[in-house]
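Supplementary Methods. Inverse-folding protocol.

Structures were first reduced to a discrete structure-token string of length 234. This string, shown here, constituted the complete conditioning input.
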């Protein structure tokens, strides 16, 4: 387990950083849900919120106008389900949403070394999969859910002015970002942008790519505010 020795006084603003971590947690969770399964009526309502509409606009996708062009919600959901299946499930040349496949430049296989590494990372945090989950540990939705979980712990640390807890959560986020997400998700998103027929999934891919790039930098900033990075203990 990692531990952190921090200064007693933070130069940052815990309330502001807590809000940032909560927003990060929610966005990770949203992206995880978008890659886990095809959208539902409930998810469409969430996506149409002003905050998320702005994020999609920045990613080159006007969610209200572009979705309206596809048809009513029932037609829209049907077409999104078809696109989701073609992109991520197959059959045929789909884009596998698994790190072990995408991280290998020669084309990896399921249950590769990356899968085991993610599994061990998750188990090292004393986290467990829900009984209904039957997928692999290195599915992109699992990796994004893991980051949401860690950002949630970070937020609790800021809220309680527990800088050790915040810094520990940030250190784990930084490790997983560098060792896993950044090694394969940008290329994965590039493939989606080049392949997707609907602007919706191109927008999701751009938003995911840009968010991870931005968050990789902001984790460093928040970790500096929380205190020195943790060091392994014997």
């Amino acid at each position: 387990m990692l531990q952190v020795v921090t200064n007693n006084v933070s130069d940052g603003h815990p309330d502001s950083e807590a809000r940032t971590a909560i927003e990060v947690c929610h966005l990770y969770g949203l992206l995880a849900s978008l890659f886990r399964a095809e959208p539902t009526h409930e998810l469409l309502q969430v996506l149409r919120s002003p905050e998320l509409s702005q994020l999609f606009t920045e990613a080159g996708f006007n969610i209200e106008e572009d979705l309206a062009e596809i048809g009513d919600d029932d037609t829209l959901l049907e077409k999104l389900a078809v696109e989701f299946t073609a992109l991520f499930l197959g059959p045929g040349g789909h884009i596998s949403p698994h790190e072990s496949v995408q991280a290998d430049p020669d084309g990896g296989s399921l249950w590769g070394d990356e899968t085991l590494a993610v599994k061990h990372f998750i188990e090292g945090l004393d986290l467990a999969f829900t009984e209904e989950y039957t997928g692999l540990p290195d599915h992109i939705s699992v990796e994004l859910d893991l980051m949401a979980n860690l950002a949630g712990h970070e937020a609790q640390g800021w809220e309680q002015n527990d800088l050790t807890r915040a810094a520990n959560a940030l250190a784990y986020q930084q490790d997983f970002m560098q060792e896993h997400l950044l090694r394969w998700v940008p290329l994965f998103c590039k493939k989606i942008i080049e392949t997707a027929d609907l602007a919706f999934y191109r927008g999701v891919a751009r938003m995911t790519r840009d968010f991870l790039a931005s968050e990789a930098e902001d984790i460093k900033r928040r970790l500096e505010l929380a205190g020195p990075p943790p060091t392994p203990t014997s």
